[in-house]
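INTERNAL AUDIT FORM
Audit reference: QA-55
Scope: verify that the stored structure record matches its stored sequence.
Auditor: D.O.
Record contents follow.
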Amino acid sequence: MRIVAGLVLVACWAIPSVGWCAGEFKLDPAAIDRLTGGKGTLNKDEGVYKVSFPRNDVKVMVDGAAMPPFMGLTSWAGFKGGERVEAMVMGDIVLFQDEVSPAMSAALDGGLWVTALHNHFFYDEPKVYFMHIGGEGSVEQLAGGVKRVMDAVKAVRARTPEPARGFAHAPFAAKSEISAAPLDAVLGAKGQAKDGMYKAVFGRTTKMPCDCVAGKELGINTWAAFYGTDELAYVDGDFAVVAGELQGVLKSLRGNGINIVAIHSHMENENPRIIFFHYWGVGRPADLARAVRAGLDLTGK
């Protein structure tokens, strides 16, 4: 036993990147820098190598004051060696509105998790969003995923240095005239109609700490509302998903051209935990409804 223990200690000293060497940083910082295209710093106490990307390419004003990257406008990704996988990553990506959808698709296509999307400020100009990412796997996969996200952001700013003020599409009709029957058929539900608009709601349930069941009328629901004509409309709504569903539904909606505009929680201490994400899409209402239905089909399994 003493010989085996001694061999383990020698191996840990000689090869500090192996996953079972307690007290040693388990990953190769140079490889992370190369794969992400960034330059990181090591926190030896926590065993985390953190790569940062300051957003100094666009001037941001918050409540009338200039906001430098040091004050919270820096994208980052932290890497740590795993026990059952080579590595894990967690990070926060600073994005402008026209960067969110490309960056999210890049993250999901690159094997990363997208776990939250929200704002940090009021009265920011241009508006800033923060997209949280995570993942487990090989350093090559995770760092490569981070690189894809950052490249997607750079590509948007290379095309248009100033953040866009809206999605590119034809003007919406002044009066909504959506045909309800085709959307009922696609969504498999009887929606509500009002002033030419259409809305369908799909309930779920969870249990609160009081052992009270919360359902559709208490806000535990997925919904989709449509405004426009049968040729051009917008859909906005909210998805309610449980753990294990979020990534698949995000991938499905992004793959169908739907923009995700927020990911967050609405409650505390519910069981099962419900994650909500809000979305926006533009197109023919039947196509938009099919995109929503495809996401719904991935929930409640």
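Auditor finding: record pair retrieved intact. Confidence is low (pLDDT under 50) at residues 1-23.
Action required: none
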